[in-house]
Design a protein that fits this description.
85% of the residues lie in helices and 0% in strands. The chain is an all-alpha fold and 120 residues long.
Length: 120
């Protein structure tokens, strides 16, 4: 059974990735990085900030702080958190590679459906 601390650690890892991407975005102004598309990286950074860090940590904290202990360790939440984390990473990668392309929009749609499942 995966505990709250695991998902908090994943969220902190995602926060570190967001910070690293922010440094790369600011470095692009100073240094010539022709292999990085600024707009694609900016889109990936903003989506991953809210999908991979903010949403995930808020959902984990809501489940573990508001639900009784018998319900918060339900495997359905673990699968849902894992799916949300995987879709957030997929969004980051596809936005960085293709921008607003078919795959990035598909993964964004999957993420939205997963948040709907969580809300129900």
């Amino acid at each position: 059974m995966i505990k709250k601390n695991f998902w908090i650690d994943i969220s902190i890892l995602n926060l570190l990735v967001v910070g690293l991407l922010g440094v790369v975005l600011r470095s692009k102004i100073v240094f010539a990085l022709p292999f990085i598309n600024y707009n694609h990286l900016l889109d990936g950074h903003s989506h991953f900030t809210f999908d991979g860090w903010v949403t995930l940590v808020l959902m984990v904290l809501m489940v573990h702080e508001l639900l009784p202990a018998t319900r918060c360790n339900n495997k359905q939440y673990q699968w849902l958190f894992g799916s949300i984390a995987l879709s957030a990473w997929s969004i980051l990668i596809t936005f960085c590679l293709e921008g607003n392309g078919t795959l990035s929009i598909l993964f964004s749609l999957i993420f939205i459906f997963l948040t709907y499942v969580f809300s129900f």
